[in-house]
Amino acid sequence: MQSFADFFSALKTDATEWCQGRSNLLRLPLLLYLAYAGFNHMRDTLYSSWFGGLTFGLHELGHVLFSGFGEFMAVAGGSITQLAVPMIGMGMLLYQRDYFGISVAGCWLSFSLYNLATYIGDAQVMQLPLVSIGGGDAYHDWEYLLLKVGLIEHDAKIAMMTRGIGFVVLLASLWLGLWVCYQMAKPQEAEARTK
């Protein structure tokens, strides 16, 4: 069985090879935007990046997708889906060997976690505007979920932990994006050997 160190080393070698011959000229501005958006997510709980509408749509779709699994899962399905889709995207991009794309999807996951933390932290005060699919009364997902599991009084702590995870994911994703752009900017190994 392959050790984690061996797996990481093989992944690093593959990523380094993937970077050769690719340009970072278009990727760097996108990475700067992602860093800017990440900073705004950290300082403003109501900030919405380019990914905001997509994340919201996936959240609402998640309620529909999980509606056949009972009320609790239908409510939780929105949050599950808004986190699962960026993670699935990261997996697909890893399979396709698009290491910069993994960085972008990781930032999206981070933004989704920040968004979710805001929703979780609102469970007791319920000040956020709510949306209901198909009309009818809107309900607060996280008020319902935390009441069901007996953790409503811990909404602020759970939100803070979620934001902390989002911060770690953001840093790791930005670091990966910077590393990939740096590898793209390095001279080709083959060219260096011939000189």
Description:
This protein is mostly helical. The protein has one domain. It contains 8 helices and no strands. It has helices at residues 4-19, 27-43, 52-65, 71-95, 99-121, 141-148, 155-185, 189-194.
Question: Keywords, please?
Answer:
0% strand, disordered C terminus, 195 residues, mainly alpha, 72% helix, 8 helices
- Please tell me what the overall shape is: elongated
Number of helices: 8
| Gyration radius from CA atoms, angstroms | 20 Å
Strand fraction band? under 5%
First-last Cα distance? 40 Å
Can you summarize this structure?
The protein has helices spanning 4-19, 27-43, 52-65, 71-95, 99-121, 141-148, 155-185, 189-194.
Please describe the topology of this protein.
Elements: H1 4-19, H2 27-43, H3 52-65, H4 71-95, H5 99-121, H6 141-148, H7 155-185, H8 189-194
Helix pairs in contact: 2-5, 2-7, 3-4, 4-5, 4-6, 5-7
